Amino acid sequence: MEELRQGMFARSLAGHDSGRLYVVIREKDGYVYLADGKLRTLDKLKKKKRKHVQPDYGTAPELEEKTARGLALRDEDIRKAIKSKEVKVCQRQM
Questions:
Q1: Are the C-beta atoms of residues 61 and 16 closer than 8 Å to each other?
Q2: Category of 14 on φ-ψ map: left (φ > 0), alpha (ψ -120 to 50) or beta
Q3: Average pLDDT over residues 78-89
Q4: Cβ–Cβ contacts within 10 Å for residue 34, how many?
Q5: Distance (Å, rounded) from C-alpha 34 to C-alpha 24?
Q6: CA nearest neighbour of 32 among 16, 11, 18
């Protein structure tokens, strides 16, 4: 199983938020810390067990660029990345 890294998309598989798309902020000790920029901000990360998350091994180009340059992510960056990902998925389904 490939290791999750910062900026990757992941979808929740279990819990009241199942199906919700998040961005991985970090992974530690079998847990994944997620943010969506709205309810789960960078100040209030969602902690989930690794097995309760379906990783999407792609990253948003804007998030990847920021992390590569060593810049801090912001909630608005995460919201934009998730919105663009969901729009792409909807367009493929049509």
A1: no
A2: beta
A3: 83
A4: 26
A5: 5
A6: 11
Position 30, amino acid: G
Cα 41 to Cα 73: distance, rounded to the nearest angstrom: 11
Convert the pLDDT of each residue in 20-53 to its tens digit: 999 999 999 989 999 999 999 999 999 999 999 9
SS3 state of residue 41: coil
For the stretch 52-75, pLDDT in tens is: 999 887 788 888 888 888 888 899
Say which residues have a Cβ less than 8 Å from residue 19's Cβ, sequence separation at least 6: 11, 12
* Beta bridge partner(s), residue 48: 32
Encoded tokens for 25: 């902020």
How far is the CA of 53 from the CAs of 13, 22, 33, 49, 77, in angstroms?
5, 10, 10, 7, 21
